[in-house]
Amino acid sequence: MTEHKATNVTFHHGSVTRDDRAALLRHKGATLWFTGLSGSGKSTVAVAVEAELTRRRRLCYRLDGDNIRMGLNANLGFSEEDRVENIRRIGEVARLFADAGLIVLSSFISPFRADRDRVRQLHDEHGLPFIEVYIDVSLKTAEARDPKGLYKKARAGAIKDFTGISSPYEPPEQPELTLTTDTMSLEDETAAVIAALEAQGIIPA
């Protein structure tokens, strides 16, 4: 539960409804939450889905872990406390974007199950679709890819609290969608995400 330090504040509702925005955009707002180990392929899949949705003329926006840490969350490190706050802030941003009618593609390791569940609850409380997409890949495969050289640094002790090495990753128990990026093609992964959006009525089939 977030502690509210601001006092004497009141939420102000506008006259434009979520249905109004959906009618304007011709699709519903929603958050797709891609979670998995570093190097699992979260960002790669999200980029491909973003391109396909844009090709279909659906308004979407991609929130990426490194990008957000360069701005909104530049003051956060990688301690457990900071990781919790990192995901809390992103959850709030994703919820606002989804409420505005966008399809949010959120790509974060988000290693702790409780943090992801809080983001899901936040969306549920506001009646917004939340689709958890588990990018399932073995640690061996992710470490072999190591596109940023982070696993090598973590093994050498240069990076502390690194997920999968010195900090745990808690996989989703009941994700809406699971993608195995070491056995699926990017085209099949993208198609699976689009099919999930169609099945939930977020975009028209």
List the helices and strands and how they pair.
Blueprint: H1 18-25, E1 30-35, H2 42-55, E2 60-64, H3 65-69, H4 80-99, E3 103-107, H5 113-125, E4 130-135, H6 139-145, H7 150-155, E5 177-179, H8 186-199
Parallel strand pairs: 1-3, 1-4, 2-3, 4-5
Helix pairs in contact: 2-8, 4-5
Q: What structural class do you assign from the helix and strand content? A: alpha/beta
Low-confidence stretches: none
Question: CATH homologous superfamily, by name?
Answer: P-loop containing nucleotide triphosphate hydrolases
Determine and state the CATH class: Alpha Beta
**What is the helix fraction of residues, given as a range?**
40-55%
Radius of gyration: 17 Å
Overall domain count:
1
- Percentage of residues in DSSP E strands: 5-15%
- Please state the overall shape, judged from the principal axes of the Cα atoms: globular
Question: What does the main sheet amount to?
Answer: 5 strands, parallel
Q: What is the CATH T-level topology? A: Rossmann fold
Secondary-structure element pattern, one letter each = HEHEHHEHEHHEH
* Helix segment tally: 8
Spatial separation of the terminal alpha carbons? 38 Å
- By DSSP, the count of extended strands is 5
Question: What's the CATH architecture name?
Answer: 3-Layer(aba) Sandwich
Mean pLDDT figure: 93
Walk across the major sheet and give the strand order.
2-3-1-4-5
Descriptive overview:
- The chain has 205 residues and is an alpha/beta fold.
- The chain has a single domain, classed as Rossmann fold (3-Layer(aba) Sandwich).
- 42% of the residues lie in helices and 12% in strands.
- The chain has eight helices and five strands, in the order H-E-H-E-H-H-E-H-E-H-H-E-H.
- A five-stranded parallel sheet has the order 2-3-1-4-5, with helices on both faces.
- The longest helix has 20 residues, at 80-99.
- The termini are far apart.
- The mean pLDDT is 93.
